[in-house]
Amino acid sequence: MTATTEHTVRVPAPRAAAPSARTRRTARRRRLGAAGVLMAPFFLLLTTVFLIPVGTAAYLSFYSDDQPGLGFGPERTVFVGLRSYAAVLTDPTFLGGLGTVALYCLIYIPLMVAGALLLALLLDSGVVRLRAFAQLGLFLPHAVPGIIAALIWLYLYTPGISPVIDLFARADITVDFLGVHTVLPSIVNIALWSNLGYNMVVFYAALQAVPREVIEAAVVDGAGPVRTALQVKTPLVRASVVMVAMFTLIWALQLFTEPMLLSQSSPMINSRFSPSMYIYDAAFTRNNYSLAAAASVVLLLCTIALSYGVTRLTSRNSTAEEAR
Amino acid sequence: MPGRHRRRSVLAAMAAAPLAGALGACSGGADDAPSGSSRTGAKKPVRVTFWSALRGSQEVVDAFNRTHDRIQVDFQQIPSGGQGGYAKLSNAARAGNAPDVATIEYPQVPGFAIDGVARDITDLVDDRLRARLLPQAFGLTTFQGRVFSVPLDVEPMVMHYRADLFDRYGLHVPRTWDEFADLARVVRRKAPERRLVLFPTDGATQFAAYSWQAGAQWFDTRDGAWNVSLADAPTRRVAAYWQDLIDRDDVFMNAVESRQSDAQIGNGLVLTRLSGAWDAGAQMNARPGQKGQWRIAPLPQWDTARPAVGTHGGSTFAVTKDSGNPEAAMEFIAWQVSHPDALRARLSSGTSSQYPAASALVAVGREAFDRSYYGGQDIYTLFEQEAEKIRDGWVWGPRMTATGRVMQDSFARVPAGRGTLVDAVRAAQDGTMPDLRALGLSTTQHST
């Protein structure tokens, strides 16, 4: 987004530089005006759907409706400093939720990136017949809203109504998709099903941009299809791999819909399973808005730090590679 | 093209519908005002709004409205607390439009009092009403000497048991927990597919009642602070007792609010149910086919020389902070909890075995109750004896729903071999403290 706007602003600059100072000034003003008009919707949305909510959350996390002692007295709003943050960070249920999400990311992100890339490479190499059909079939689950997807999978996971479990039972295999050890993989499965096709399309588009000459050169040099895919094409779509990994990470940290729905069927998913569920529980069953706000800010900071870490790490790696 | 046209007109109609509704509501309001002012002010009855999830509330309200001219009650049936009723009440209070009278179960009373939803009604509760209600029940709604809600029913925990199966296997009703544990072993030996009882994984309130009976004090409010000790010695004793039964596979362990549990009761796989007095009526409604098979006995005791029980269930009525007419609201509450006609109206909606907090009403409940389901047993006399044994001094915590939930989350992991009941209680305490601290309450933590 920023790249395109810079582009539109900069391109006419050399042409406008020649005439008198006055026309230059009007041109400049006009350009600024145009930039302002074009950017206004973005900043308006940024302010209303991001800055104001984040600001409100930050405010709520530092203030609280307090009553001294047992709490039965009259309420007054006071500044409480980092009290809510201290409470969140000493709450074992919140830290447990962070741990759960960390484990989820460790399973989910590699599977997602590797799976989507593999499918994209297969489609790109022409091995797959009925390419358009395969693409559509893989992409379609992404069009299903997350809550519907979770409902469908809930049906497939619940003993007694699930045809899948029935089928396994007939072969004398007992499967429990919602047990202590299986519940997290079951959630990963839902997320993979929903998003694999979307990320595959991103990779496929990036692969289309790989210059054909490079691939022809590789083939002439005697690289087989597997080697071409792994050592020629994959490094060339590195930027999209990083982007997909980062978006997947941000999305995964906010894990909410799937466990929220599955929790109705499995006691193994508790009401504070993930940080987002903790926030929901703090606000709406515990009526503790300061605590919920503090937890939200902590989650936001974690997300920003991790995204920043990923970009820094990958950009350093690529500059190191280029230097080589 | 015609297709698009039609769609647009449908959209227009959809947009207009709520608008029309709003206009209608406005005109309705405008109609009311002049008619009210044209009459003399004194004749217009005071309107009191009332929310409840309790069965038979509509009948109670109808009976009240028939016999009262000065106060008229508008009733709205809402979902039960856990099903969204409490969230609805909290949100309404936040928005400033809570009903005058709300129904709150005992464990949630301190939470709603702290949040400023339930009003301090100490001055509105007169001595006559106070004298009519069981003091242990009032104790549960009184904090720092201030009353926040009025008890409707109080439910001592009792033991419902299958008399026919006890006879078939030659079992005796256990009077102590030791006898109960021995009996659990005998049942499993004599009938391997049956168990004496279920330990409910979703039963934080049942577990609280067991601990309460054993002398636990999860919360107390001495020295102006919430002193929390969920894993105190009596609780650890109760937890160890049940853990033992679970480890030996002498009891079932699953959720009680589940089809599995329904099947266990329906198929006679479980021989006793430990729950509040109200459950006798609920059982009759749920399983009319088991008529004559059940009896009720006192809960087993730790020390028969000093008998005690806890409660399981029971509701109270609170006047909210938003109420414009707390005196009228209180009059309705007082009538509802202490007038025989109120209980008669409630019972007319179906069978119930709730044990009224007003002892004068016990006779009304006994009279209306069909004894044949329990083989002619006079269960109200039993309830009366058990209610006297309710241990005084129990205090529910400020965030009981959340505390119970964390406990149940850990209970549910016990059958999978993850942790023990004591771990679950400790986890509940660890998960509660940050919450209380973030609310700005004074707290201390204990483990003895």
Notes on the protein architecture:
The complex is a heterodimer of chains A (324) and B (448). Chain A has helices at residues 2-10, 13-16, 21-62, 83-89, 92-125, 131-143, 146-157, 163-170, 183-208, 212-220, 225-236, 238-253, 257-262, 275-284, 289-323; strands at residues 63-66, 76-79. A two-stranded antiparallel ribbon of chain A has the order 1-2. Chain A folds into two domains: 2-79, no CATH class; 92-323, MetI-like (MetI-like fold), CATH 1.10.3720. In chain A, 75% of the residues lie in helices and 2% in strands. Chain A is flat. Chain A is built from 15 helices and two strands. Chain B is of the alpha/beta class. Chain B folds into two domains: 44-148 and 315-353, D-Maltodextrin-Binding Protein, domain 2; 157-311 and 380-445, Periplasmic binding protein-like II (D-Maltodextrin-Binding Protein, domain 2, 3-Layer(aba) Sandwich), CATH 3.40.190.10. Chain B is 46% helix and 13% strand. Chain B has 18 helices and 15 strands. Chain B has helices at residues 2-38, 57-67, 85-95, 109-114, 127-132, 135-139, 163-168, 177-190, 204-214, 233-247, 259-266, 279-286, 326-338, 340-347, 362-368, 379-388, 400-411, 421-438, and strands at residues 46-52, 71-77, 101-105, 142-143, 146-147, 150-151, 157-162, 198-200, 219-220, 226-228, 252-254, 272-276, 294-298, 315-319, 443-445. Chain B has a five-stranded mixed sheet with strand order 2-1-3-14-6, with helices on both faces. Chain B is globular, with a radius of gyration of 25 Å. Classes of the chains: A mainly alpha (324), B alpha/beta (448). At the A-B interface, strand 1, helix 4, helix 5, helix 14 and helix 15 of A face helix 4, helix 17 and helix 18 of B.
Largest beta-sheet characterization of chain A? 2 strands, antiparallel
Measured by DSSP, the beta-strand proportion of chain A falls in under 5%
Q: How many structural domains of chain B?
A: 2
Output the structural class of chain A: mainly alpha
Q: Decide which structural class fits the backbone of chain B.
A: alpha/beta
**Most extensive chain contact?**
A-B, 39 and 43 residues
CATH H-level superfamily title of the largest domain in chain B: Periplasmic binding protein-like II
Task: Give the CATH level 1 class of the largest domain in chain A.
Answer: Mainly Alpha
Total helical segments of chain A: 15
Number of strands of chain B: 15
Look at the structure and give the mean pLDDT of chain A. Answer: 86
Unreliable runs of chain A, pLDDT <50, ≥5 residues? 1-17
Q: Please name the CATH topology of the largest domain in chain A.
A: MetI-like fold
As a percent range, the share of strand residues of chain B is 5-15%
Measured as a percent range, the helix fraction of chain B is 40-55%
